[in-house]
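hey so u asked for the seq, here:
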Amino acid sequence: MSSTVSLPLPLPLLEARNLGVSYAIRHAGRRVRLRALDDVSFHLDRAETLGIVGESGSGKSTLARALLRLIPADAGTVRLQPDINLLTLRGAALRSVRSRLQMIFQDGVAALDPRQRIGEALDEPLVVLKPQLTEPQRRERVRSLLELVGLEAGHLDRFPHEFSGGQAQRIGIARALMVEPEIVVCDEPLSSLDVSIKAQITALLQQLQQALQLSMIFIAHDLPAVQQLCDRVLVLYLGRVMEIAPCAALFDRPRHPYTRALLQSVPIPDPRVARGRRTAPLAGEIPSSLAPPSGCVFRTRCPYAIDRCASEVPLLRSIDGSEVACHRAEEI
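ran it, structure tokens below
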């Protein structure tokens, strides 16, 4: 009689639990706490791309910067395998993991030092984080990465102002990949680009992720790009997670009213299809983080809100493979 042995599931490469970020600010003549992220939990698997979407002010960039320790978090844990809590690292211990996590910034030109030639900017992370490499090894690495992102070795002696926005973003991508990271956080890398260049950079990121087996966190307003690039999607609203779902499921059957409203806001070029929409795009503006609504933070804009939504914070719960923070998700 044979027996089967269940193998343990692989652990996520990165896992955030109950992550919180707040700032002490002055408001109306007194010091108050502004809660930018509240109880955010998710995981990122190896070679996976996780999309993070939401309106401006929802906490997307705050989340990216907290994960990379560019701003301090004041609650929760962020664990990087094998069992490293990123939020507790200091000094040399923090520097030792910097090469494992890198970031692509929103504005490619602004992210570069205008006084540095591109060759120096690309060499700098290797000097700091890969000191064991010789100068010829670093030079070869810089040239190969520049070619990988679609630029030429002849660009190395130029300054940032001599490049277009799309070229500068390619340089930013090369700089992030220079130290061979396991995780790349893309903080709205398409938002400053025009339509044709957006498509090129989206395709480049997709090619690099597949070729290098990168784990990526892709933050964007561009939902078609999210649909093209991502395996799963996390929806943020006012610093809280509304929904986490596989990409296909989220776009085909969104469970949270906020997710549905976001998808309805995507322009449709065919006016006949646009007229056939069943619901209107989301109305109103996101509330202030200084005075968030009680209970469900989305309830003041939600057409399905009931009394329970004002008194009880909805917790993430599993519904058909998606995680949804909505009291009425099954009804909707």
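The longest strand covers residues 30-44. The domain at 14-100+181-324 is CATH 3.40.50.300 (Rossmann fold).
lmk if thats what u needed
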